């Protein structure tokens, strides 16, 4: 089943770094996932997230306010 990954962030450097880490993990491990970048502040507010970047996997907020390591992202996706 395809995982739905959303990266919440307004385009700050940390948000861009998180996007890169997630894309790398997905491609390096052949994970079936769609990655969606959510930059609209109103959309981000719907998740009740006050600190970005935030990582949402299948509508569950897994990480917020920091950039995760590749290993951490991989563990969350498995």
Automatic annotation (TrEMBL):
Catalytic residues (positions): 12 (nucleophile), 15 (nucleophile)
SUPFAM superfamilies attached to this UniProt entry: Thioredoxin-like (SSF52833)
Gene3D superfamilies membership: Glutaredoxin (3.40.30.10)
One Pfam family hit: Thioredoxin_3
Disulfides per UniProt: 12-15
Every Thioredoxin-like fold domain range: 5-77
Name this polypeptide is given: Redox-active disulfide protein 2
Organism encoding this protein: Jejuia pallidilutea
């Amino acid at each position: 089943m395809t995982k739905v990954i959303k990266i919440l962030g307004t385009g700050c450097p940390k948000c861009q770094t998180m996007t890169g880490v997630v894309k790398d993990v997905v491609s390096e491990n052949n994970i079936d996932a769609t990655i969606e970048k959510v930059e609209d502040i109103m959309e981000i507010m719907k998740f009740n997230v006050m600190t970005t970047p935030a990582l949402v996997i299948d509508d569950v907020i897994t990480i917020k306010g920091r950039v995760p390591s590749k290993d951490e992202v991989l563990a969350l996706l498995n």
